């Protein structure tokens, strides 16, 4: 396997919420895979911190089981789990009281390694933990904290959270995770845009008819109904993940690939977003699978709220008011319990200004598709002559930049978003993390949209289990003589 592992300095990573779901599913298996790739230096420590009364041996067993369950093929193929477990420690800690903090401070004392604190806990605890890190002398200038979404539920709460964290840490110590930024293809999007001459001259409203961003999921919300019913697709996905994708597609080329240069450009995009008109929003709620209501209940049953007005699907037509994009709509949609799990960004170019081929009545458009998951890859649709006799008949064919075919599939090391982002924290690179002003600007745009449908008492439209969302979402595009791309793997 070819992998260029860039070494990182020795570090201590403390995971608050070390026994929780995110730690077990993503953070710990991700660290183990980096360990197997040879990136974790000898002497590094991963310290689980949580309220449950475990000793280090018991915690190591929890970590072992988590990696066996969620580590995936790369973890299964690596037989260094026992070595990795030697790096693991555990402290019982109370985020809201002082219990356990002295033990943690003692553990961290006297080392000059990088210290990172991962807040894998409910946002309500962020302030308590930050305050106690400071109180116990753990918030020195080199320390980093990592916080997860949801980062607030509106502008007011996000501002308050930023203010609290800023009381104890500088902005360059705060890593706000949006795991979409750690996905391989999302980074490749920047490489394609800013590493090629080909696209940039065409990347504007003069040549681009419209852009689509789809994040379709097959999963429902069972198991996290309480959180989700208070959030909905707009807060859960659009304000963060889809907004970040939109920024990377729409932003101006930054002067350099450095954290603030990139984030400055993203911020300008968010600030140029127009308010969204009600008829440019379609909200939906999934129905039960017919005949299988028990296993696949409706959204309202899953969240145990028969009158819920929260959306599990949303489609929006977004406009960006700047020189580059005025006149080019961005259609974004995301939903749960859809036909396929598929995330894709599509740039649909305009028609040629004049058709010189009389035999050909078709409409041919170049379409650049950036496929995020499950199969990563980039395809550019181009028009060519259909081979053989019969005149100038034109067909569209894909120029495929799918990595697995262009590069040798076995040679690519697939790095999960969390692996990449955790290593970036240790390296001190904030490029793929959200800055406070970005998060606030995103809420500033989101809030009036949500307030609008709350004021109208808007009820989401039902959509079928395993479908492509409410029919109204399709009608929204058809009114403008456009079509959503088919949701496929
Ligand atoms: C999370 C959302 O941030 O992203 C979930 O809270 C969603 O609702 C998930 O399912 C999607 O992530 P991915 O990486 O599976 O596309």
Mean pLDDT: 93
* Oligomer status: single chain
Helical stretch tally: 15
What string gives the helices and strands in order? EHEHHHEHEHEHEHEHHEHEEEEEEHHHEH
- pLDDT under 50 segments (min length 5)? none
- The amount of helix comes to 25-40%
Query: Helix/strand/pairing class, anyone?
Result: alpha/beta
Number of strands: 15
Q: Main sheet, how many strands, which sense, barrel? A: 9 strands, mixed
Hey, roughly how much beta strand do the residues contain? 15-25%
Strands of the widest sheet, in order across it, are: 14-13-12-11-7-10-9-8-15
Radius of gyration: 24 Å
Shape annotation: globular
Provide the list of bound ligands, each named once. Answer: 6-O-phosphono-beta-D-glucopyranose
Distance between the termini: 26 Å
Name the features.
nine-stranded mixed beta sheet; binds 6-O-phosphono-beta-D-glucopyranose; 489 residues
How is this structure best described in words?
The protein is an alpha/beta fold and 489 residues long. 35% of the residues lie in helices and 19% in strands. The strands form two sheets. It has a nine-stranded mixed beta sheet with strand order 14-13-12-11-7-10-9-8-15, with helices on both faces. Strands 3-2-1-4-5-6 form a six-stranded parallel beta sheet, sandwiched between helices. α1 packs across α13 (417-427) and α9 (225-250) crosses α14. The longest helix has 26 residues, at 225-250. The mean pLDDT is 93. The chain binds 6-O-phosphono-beta-D-glucopyranose. 6-O-phosphono-beta-D-glucopyranose is lined by residues 149, 179, 217, 219, 236.
